[in-house]
Amino acid sequence: MRFVIALLLMLLATPVYGNANTPDDVMAVQALIEKFDTPGIVVTEDGRTVPAFVVYAEAVAAYGDCAVDPLIVALEEEGQVRVAAAIALDMIGPASIKAKPQLVVLLNSSVDRDNILACGVIRGIGSSAAELVPLVREQLYHKNFHVQYWACRALASIGPGAHAATEDLCERLGTGVASVRRNAAIALGSIAPGMTLRQLQETVNVLEVTKLRDECHPVRIEAVAALAKIAEFQAQVD
Question: Are residues 65 and 112 in the same domain?
């Protein structure tokens, strides 16, 4: 089944993020969530294709905070419904910290996709998810490198509150695959303000080596960017 994007304009004409909390809004959110298992794709105006459930997830996210509770229920479902719920919670942001118990379950799951979905939601939550850093750190050593780089992204979004993962990220920067090394560099630059002096020095040393020796150009670029962030932070402190 293929949907033309023009037919979904009314669906997407939802409230501004965080401004919806009436009974009608709650009913609309629930109706949209019930569409999360819709098959097919949407054709955008520029010819790209997007899964229909992603469009519904974006529509739910536009309702902001009032969508969090029903999305948490959907996050406990299986398959495509869980994926759509995670996408919406990621987009809503900090208010999605209410899903912390469910995120803990997903981070401890033996299913790779669950781990990735949890890291994606945590990335959207940002600094408010600092309590989940210990579980996210564990994902840096997951057997699946996709989980590893999503863990890096989650830690980068948490920022300074993820400083406990400094040594782990430095290790990943030296031994991970290219996508993991690149995202580890980004994360190190983001969490630098929370590091101790020892962690900061270790990070600078590892990034300097990466900048000069890493075989992957995008990784070297991110190492340079991270060093610049650290230098800017140090200049402000001094």
Answer: no
Cα 185 from chain centre: 16
Total residues belonging to the chain: 238
Instruction: Please report the DSSP string for 7-37 in residue order.
Output: GGHHHH-PPPTT---SHHHHHHHHHHHTTTT
Domain boundary (39, 59, 92) is at 92
Residues 117 and 50 in one domain: no
Instruction: Please report, in tens digits, the pLDDT of each residue of the chain (238 residues total).
Output: 444 443 443 344 445 444 456 778 889 999 999 999 999 988 867 787 889 999 999 999 999 999 999 999 999 999 999 999 999 999 999 999 999 999 999 999 999 999 999 999 999 999 999 999 999 999 999 999 999 999 999 999 999 999 999 999 999 999 999 999 999 999 999 999 999 999 999 999 999 999 999 999 999 999 999 999 999 988 887 6
Enclosing domain of residue 38? 1-92
Its pTM stands at 0.88
In-domain check, residue 188: yes
For the chain, the domain total comes to 2
72, 101: one domain: no
